[in-house]
Amino acid sequence: MTDEQATRHRTEQHHSEHWRLTQVVKDRLTSPAWLARTAGVCLSGVSVGFVVLLAFILETRGDIALITRPLPMQIALALPTVVAVLTAVTAVGTVLAWWNRYWSLRARLHQTLVTVLGLGFSWILATLGFLPL
């Protein structure tokens, strides 16, 4: 095999790998099962992140951070809206998972638990005034 043929072969192999990767990403982004699971994971992460960030800000800056609203506090106060949106997306994904039987029973029960916890946390956030009613 000449150098030119080897280079052409590597180029074709690279294009083939790139096409496969593009196809996998496209399939994932259009898969309701994958989107439902991703929404649940993001819901959990953003919820924990909100609590940790708010506690850290109040611990380091005190109650004055509620009045002056520095940038970290503005970011923290934007997260409850993200939590509410992710809760809604996770709830829709959970209903679709049960309807279409995306995963095993155990996985669907886990997703349902994540959804119920998200709904409860969103209700608490609304009750405490972090979300508009």
Task: Provide a descriptive summary of the structure in words.
This protein is mostly helical and 133 residues long. It folds into two domains: 1-30; 32-127. The chain has helices spanning 3-29, 32-61, 64-68, 71-100, 105-127. Helix 2 runs antiparallel to helix 4 (71-100), helix 2 packs parallel to helix 5 (105-127) and helix 4 packs antiparallel against helix 5 (105-127). It is flat. The N and C termini lie far apart (71 Å). The chain crosses the membrane at residues 34-57, 77-100, 112-131. Keywords: Membrane, Transmembrane, Transmembrane helix.
SSE topology sketch:
Elements: H1 3-29, H2 32-61, H3 64-68, H4 71-100, H5 105-127
Helix pairs in contact: 2-4, 2-5, 4-5
Form type = flat
End-to-end separation in angstroms reads: 71 Å
Number of strands: 0
Could you estimate the helical fraction of the residues in percent?
Answer: over 70%
Using the CA coordinates, give the radius of gyration: 22 Å
- Structural class call reads mainly alpha
Number of domains: 2
Unreliable segments (pLDDT under 50, ≥5 consecutive)? Answer: none
How large is the share of residues in beta strands? under 5%
Q: What's the main sheet like?
A: none
H/E element order: HHHHH
Instruction: Give the overall pLDDT as a whole number.
Output: 88
Query: How many individual helices?
Result: 5
Transmembrane segments: 34-57, 77-100, 112-131
Keywords: Membrane, Transmembrane, Transmembrane helix
